[in-house]
Write a structure and sequence with these properties.
alpha+beta; S9 family peptidase; 6-blade_b-propeller_TolB-like; protease; Peptidase_S9_cat; 4-stranded antiparallel sheet; 10 helices; serine protease; 634 residues
Length: 634
């Protein structure tokens, strides 16, 4: 067996965004590296026959960032985005399948954000920001570029590309709203258009509206407001006419999980079609008839059809199904999915299953020794059903315990651990299992996969029941002789980083902690993070609610910093706008003030996710070294 190294983890390539041709015979996917080595993430387009008759073949040869493959209705042309001509500025390209030639069909100076080939073979709908004016260029050259918030903010607008002339026109529609998604009706009718008041992540996603646009006449219809973070537009016909659906957060609170909303276009009646279900929709996908819905279902995934009476289960799958794509009839699908011991690859088949793997993008991991992974089911202190994963040290089984145990809390909190391959550039179970650790991956309340009430329960109560859910799981593993109570570690990134920072302020049980891009002050995050309104819902208040103390003070790790005795490793990206670096600085200064052993590492040029290869390698090595130092004395 080959040993697992940090280089093996980050030097691989992974498939993204598969796109099935309408005839179902060919599939295109993006092949992307796990890490970036230069200024750009160079990606490639690959084609594969879905019948398995031939191996994958590269569709393009240029060094570029290529993305968003989309097929023409006759399956003869593949449209995609590429910045091959001007790195960092994507243009729409057209690849003819028969001869393999690819040519650019736009030269929009601001670049193209997204594109949708229409039923009319001569038209492509585009999303693109306004091209810079001469005045903009002159200001940039003269560095007369003061940013006035609210002025000249970038907004993507609907534009139409006529392939016969190459001309791009911009319909005068939707005022100054920022357009985020388009979907044409299956019969070639109007475009459904999802817009926001602005591209500001804190403000825009809560201001969504739905419109119709006739691409031929330019006529529009406003359909009203949509739920926060709406996405996954899908049309379908019913007895009362056309329906238009989307996935959005369940009102009235922002931290209440997602639901599928169904708008009857003619009557204007809007319904929540997944209310009361013990699982959470992640994708809604259009077909010529009833749409397909992907549900996070505990540790696994359910694929369903949205019938008039409600979702009808078609198949159930271990782990995750991501990036669903289908033929227009919905009779064949492709998804990204994997196993407990293999990274996600493209799989195809009928929606009722079984699915067959047609790519193998990480063969270099086939000989790696891995730890045994098993699902956990247990009850919380208040008798709520919970789940999670346990990964044992490589070469060990449960009777060999007790082991040093690292608990890794997931982000979100509206996210989950699924029963799939747990090896990533950030702290992950198989990476630590290879170094002799048992790893607990809990799914506490507030996460995805157990319905609306489960997700809602964490709003304004972060660090409360969700934390005792995690402790209950740790206690169970100690009682079963798997975890050594004297060698416990805690780690996490983003909301998981919050939980790690929270843990060390509440108990001295842990001998080491890792806080990656973690939240330590909810009021500060609501004021400075890019998702401020969402963070305010989690923390329960903001600093401008009046003279404190505020509810968020009682659930912020910084308030308990004087109680920390556990050594803490803090890792953070310098350019993080989701959880700004100030959160890490605040925690570092508090720990320094109270004489707590800790290490503070900042990664230049990095945002919320670490992308540069050397930084990912450092992240992995530093993670192991920290827990080795405090849990194993090495």
């Amino acid at each position: 067996m080959t040993g697992l190294t940090a280089e093996l983890v980050v030097d691989g390539r992974q498939p993204r965004t598969p796109a099935l041709a309408p005839n179902g015979r060919l599939l295109c996917y993006v092949l992307a590296p796990v890490s970036r080595t230069g200024d750009h993430l160079d990606t490639e387009l690959w084609l594969v026959d879905t019948d398995g008759a031939a191996a994958s073949r590269r569709a393009t040869a240029d060094v570029a960032t290529e993305s968003r493959p989309r097929w023409s209705a006759d399956s003869g042309i593949l449209y995609f985005l590429s910045d091959r001509a001007d790195r960092g500025t994507a243009q729409v390209h057209r690849l003819t399948v028969d001869d393999g030639t690819a040519t650019a069909v736009t030269t929009w100076r601001a670049g193209i954000v997204d594109h949708v080939p229409l039923a009319d073979p001569d038209l492509v709908a585009l999303l693109a920001e306004d091209e810079p004016t001469e005045q903009d260029t002159r200001r940039a050259q003269d560095r007369d570029d003061a940013i006035v918030v609210g002025e000249r903010e970038p907004r993507a607008r609907v534009r139409l590309l006529d392939l016969r002339t190459g001309q791009v026109t911009t319909p005068d529609v939707f005022g100054d709203r920022h357009v985020v998604e388009l979907r044409q009706r299956p019969d070639g009718g109007p475009l459904a258009v999802l817009s926001q008041a602005s591209s500001d992540n804190d403000y825009g996603p809560r201001t969504g509206e739905l419109h119709l646009l006739d691409p031929t006449t330019g006529a529009t219809v406003d359909l009203g407001a949509v739920g926060a973070d709406a996405h996954s537009l899908a049309w379908w016909p019913d007895d009362d006419g056309w329906h238009l659906g989307y996935v959005a957060l369940t009102p009235p609170l922002l931290q209440a999980g997602t639901a599928v909303f169904d708008l009857a276009v003619d009557s204007g009646v809007l319904r929540n079609r997944t209310s009361g279900l013990p699982m959470c929709p992640t994708e809604l996908h259009q077909t010529d008839t009833a749409p397909l819905v992907v549900f996070a279902d505990g540790l696994n995934t359910t694929l369903a059809r949205l019938d008039p009476a409600g979702p009808t289960t078609l198949s159930q799958h271990p782990g995750r199904l991501d990036d669903l794509t289908t033929t227009p009839t919905g009779e064949r699908i492709a998804v990204l999915t994997g196993t407990r011991y293999q990274h996600a690859n493209v799989h195809v088949g009928p929606p009722t299953g079984p699915l067959r793997r047609i790519t193998d993008t990480r063969p270099e991991l086939d000989g790696i020794a891995l730890g045994i992974q098993q699902p956990l089911a247990y009850r919380a202190a208040d008798d709520l059903d919970l789940d999670g994963l346990l990964v044992l040290p490589v070469g060990k089984s449960a009777p060999d315990g007790p082991f040093p145990l690292v608990t890794i809390a997931h982000g979100g909190p509206y996210d989950r651990y699924a029963d799939d391959f747990q090896l990533f550039w950030h702290p992950s179970a198989q990476w630590l299992a290879a170094a002799g650790y048992a790893v607990f991956l809990p799914n506490p309340r507030g996460g995805q996969g157990h319905g609306h009430q489960f997700a809602l329960s964490v709003a304004g109560r972060v660090g409360q029941e969700e934390w005792t859910d995690i402790l209950t799981g740790i206690d169970l593993l100690v009682a079963e002789g798997i975890a050594d109570p004297d060698r416990l570690g805690i780690a996490g990134g983003s909301h998981g980083g919050f939980l790690a920072a929270w843990a060390v302020g509440q108990t001295d049980r842990f001998r080491a902690a890792l806080v990656g891009a973690g939240v330590v002050d909810w009021g500060m995050l609501a004021a400075t993070g890019e998702n401020g309104q969402f963070e305010a819902a989690l923390g329960g208040s903001t600093g401008w609610d009046g003279i404190g103390p505020h509810p968020h003070d009682a659930v912020s790790p910084i308030s308990f910093a004087r109680h920390v005795r556990t050594p803490v490793l803090i890792l953070h990206g310098a350019e993080d706008t989701n959880v700004p670096l100030g959160q890490a600085v605040y925690f570092h200064r508090a720990l320094r003030r109270f004489g707590v052993e800790h290490e503070f590492v900042v990664y230049p040029r990095e945002g919320h996710a670490i992308q540069e290869r050397n930084h990912q390698v450092d992240f992995l090595r530093r993670t192991r070294a920290w827990f080795d130092r405090w849990l194993r004395g090495s």
